[in-house]
Amino acid sequence: AISGDVDLEVAAGNLQLGYVAAAGTARLRASGDIADASGDGGADVAGSVVDLDAGGAIGPNQRFVELIAERLTATATGAIYLVGNAGGLIVEEIEAGGDLWLVLDGAGDLIVDRINAGNDTRLYAYGGDVRLGTAETAGRMWVLAADSILNDETTDVTNLTASAIELQAVAGHIGIEASPVRVITSSLTATANDGIALASTEDLSLGAVRSASGAIALSADGDILNTLTGAATNLLGGDSVHLIALGDIGTSNNAIRIGTDARVSARHGGDLYLRTSNRDLNLAATESEQGWAYLSLLGEGDLSADSVTARGLHLRLQDGDAAIDTVATGELDAVLAGEGRELSIAQLLMSARPRGVSVQADRLSLLNVQSGRAMTFSLLGNDGGIADSIEVLGSIRGTARFSELYADQALVDVVRPDARQSRIAIRRMIVLTGATVRTSSIAATIGSGDATPFRLQVGRRAVSFPRRSNRVIEVVPRTASLQTRGGFEM
């Protein structure tokens, strides 16, 4: 060991290391390889700063050069294989022409300022955190930390760039929402114990992202995409999931697959595609000014949501109920295929230019419907006939096909804008306190289309009409009213 600096150079050939130590900087140069000569598992080079420069490889044939250092700089035309054995390590700069393996075997953090590698890269910290500046490779990248993987940059630079990235934080987390780990890759896999926060200035292409607890927060300046095939799941675990994309989230051919009971929120500039298989989907809120929201639940599973704001909402449930507090949209297209299943929306806010509502379900419950203008309203039961019931506790306007219509403190304005619209069919109508049911259609059909008489109940008062009658009626009791202009075909 030397009390000052060590500067060794092999001008022509390889540098075979037994043990080189310096109190200051250990600077080693070779036109060929820098290699571990003994292979005894002990340290090969030690210094406060270790600076390695090889015209060939450092640690050729995966025979790792072992070092003890506070700071490291390394350059090689070929691959680099290094192990740090004690304390933390600050990587000031590494340039590798081939593969890069950097393993911190002892306690402490692996701090990366800058890395550039020509092929596959592995950064492992078995006793602490991995704290990232920038690391870029033309191949794949694996980053493992015993604790957490953190963004150590103070600006919005990209931390990791690789064709595929796999991250694992065994006991801790990956990034935080205020400072996510920023990546550019075509395939991302991440596993953590206590939360994941990832971002990309381009598309964020997801494999499996799993956290035992904490929040999963993913954002992209482009799209958030699913790179998995078949029924493999993208998002698992976590206490909550937050998705933000300036573009789409998922695609029509490959939705983002949710495999967690955590509440999911999404903000998207384009369209949103979420899918579950045989599990519930719990949404906090989804929001987009221009994009559609496509929500699909395969197999058994219920949908619950606080709010969905989108240009259009497309729901598909194979065997489950859907309950949404607020839907703000221009078009609703929902199919609940399970027998006896119900779509419940507390507040349906249609846009200034609504395209309409189309629901196929056995039961529909609407507490309040608001629309700036008349729209087409279609409700069909799953057997192709009329649905079991619709409950309205607010206002609704449109054309529909009901078995039973319940109106409570509501304005139900059933209109037929033109002759091309489907006929209105209501088998049984119950109008409760303070409600008004009105039709301005000249030839609306109120009845089941079969021999079943139409039954009108207003408050406690019930009136029945045979199927084949044609009359103008106006029933206005104290508590509610049914107002019509024109005739009914019974």
Q: What's the arrangement of secondary structure elements?
A:
Blueprint: E1 6-10, E2 15-17, E3 20-21, E4 25-30, E5 34-36, E6 45-54, E7 65-76, E8 80-84, E9 89-96, E10 100-104, E11 110-117, E12 121-125, E13 130-137, E14 140-145, E15 149-151, E16 160-161, E17 164-169, E18 181-184, E19 188-200, E20 204-220, E21 224-226, E22 235-237, E23 240-245, E24 256-259, E25 263-268, E26 272-277, E27 281-287, E28 292-300, E29 303-309, E30 312-319, E31 322-329, E32 331-336, E33 342-350, E34 356-360, E35 363-366, E36 369-370, E37 377-380, E38 389-392, E39 395-398, E40 401-407, E41 411-414, E42 425-431, E43 436-439, E44 443-445, E45 454-458, E46 461-465, E47 474-475, E48 481-484, E49 487-489
Parallel strand pairs: 1-4, 2-5, 3-6, 4-6, 6-7, 7-8, 7-9, 8-10, 9-11, 10-12, 11-13, 12-14, 13-15, 13-16, 14-17, 16-18, 17-19, 18-19, 19-20, 20-21, 20-22, 20-23, 22-24, 23-25, 24-26, 25-27, 26-28, 27-29, 28-30, 29-31, 30-32, 31-33, 32-34, 33-35, 33-36, 34-37, 35-38, 38-40, 39-41, 40-42, ...
Antiparallel strand pairs: 45-46, 47-48
Mean of all residue-level pLDDT scores: 83
* Estimated radius of gyration: 33 Å
How far is the N terminus from the C terminus? 106 Å
Helix content percent band: under 10%
Count of DSSP-assigned helices? 0
The 3D shape can be described as elongated
Structural class: mainly beta
Strand-residue proportion: over 45%
Unreliable spans = 397-402, 414-425, 439-490
Please give the oligomerization state of what you see: single chain
How is the main sheet built?
Answer: 12 strands, parallel, barrel
Number of E-type strands: 49
Spatially, the strands of the biggest sheet line up as 7-8-10-12-14-17-19-18-16-13-11-9
